[in-house]
Amino acid sequence: MLRQASPVYDFPDLDENTKATTFYTTGTTGLPKGVYFSHRQVILHTFSLAAALGCFVSSIFRSTDVYMPLTPMFHAHAWGILYLATLLGVKQVYPGKYEPGYILNLVKNEKVTFSHCVPTVMHMLINNQEAKDKDLSKWKVVIGGAALPKGLAKEIASLGIKIFASFGMSEAFPVVTISNLKGHMQEWDKDEQLDVLIKPGLPLPLYELEIADASGNFLPKDGVTSGELIMRAPWLTESYFKEPDRTKELWRDGWMHGGDVAAIDREGYIQITDRLKDVIKSGGEWVSSLELENYTSQHESVSEAAAVGIPDQKWGERPLALVVLKPEYKGKVKEEDLKSRLKGFVDSGLLPRYGLPDRIEFIEAIPKTSVGKINKVALRKLYAKQL
Length: 387
Description:
The chain has two domains: 19-203, ANL, N-terminal domain (Rossmann fold, 3-Layer(aba) Sandwich), CATH 3.40.50; 278-386, GMP Synthetase, Chain A, domain 3 (2-Layer Sandwich). Helices cover 27% and strands 25% of the residues. It has eleven helices and 19 strands. The protein has helices at residues 39-54, 81-88, 100-109, 119-126, 129-133, 150-158, 190-197, 244-250, 289-297, 335-347, 376-386, and strands at residues 19-24, 34-38, 66-67, 91-92, 114-117, 140-143, 162-168, 175-178, 202-203, 208-212, 227-232, 251-252, 255-264, 270-275, 280-282, 285-287, 302-312, 316-325, 359-362. The strands form six sheets. The chain has a five-stranded mixed sheet, with helices on both faces. Strands 10, 11, 12, 13 and 14 form a five-stranded antiparallel sheet that branches. The longest helix has 16 residues, at 39-54. 38% of the residues are buried.
């Protein structure tokens, strides 16, 4: 097919508002929804991404990098970064298969310096023996699609990999924020810097981000107050494909409502505290499933963690923590060991007392969606029946 193809393609002279791409969300909170973008929106997002990745104190992606995406193209344009790589003339390496040893050898042999992926893919890679045997200190990886727990971040950083958390959504093309250190943070100790780098980060240029209450009132950006994250930017999808009712829910009062609960601190960094549909509502109080996963992950025995709310007659819902142990800890760690560690976060005021899970279940694997996100819909259904 390639031999028969012409090496030249004459692009038609399209209006910039012509539809360029259509794809579907992964359906983590319901049926998949079609989103679409024009050529103009593709270009604007690409330019904004270029500024965010290349113009600040810590430059993440430049024309001298070697780029290997570890996010499928069907997952929100491979986060749109392939457009920027093409614009900059960057060498691009496409792995084709997701085998840890194979990917890590490509990093070494092709001198890959920049990638992006979801946390579960990075978890798979760093737990392969070849990761321990290779110099990965020149590899920068943007991690998004799900929250990056600090426990996993520490393991990645221990291999010399430079990590940057991010946040996006299909409706936003998808990148909304990328974490990076500001100038005055460059001298902080590594643990303090890691606390910043695992946050979803700072918005791309041209975004307007606010947090709002249920009535649509803007809330203070103090790093503590949480509300629904709403946004505006020139490249956001204008509607869901052939779904006017869901479009009305998406766009209200001139702002896109993505369904994420967040706080914004005084430095401008976003912290996603949960999806509205994943928040655990216990006795009228909200428990962040993402925070619970983050604190659970920091026990040395934990390989992966998930948290969901399950029905409870007294409190409405109670948090359940699901844990995959590292192989060397299986049979050696008890539920009370992890509860004791979590109680330490309660005692220090980081986790509310009502956020301490009644039960911690040890499981062999956590179910994932097609793009590697924790499938909380499946977990809630499964454990609501079992427990």
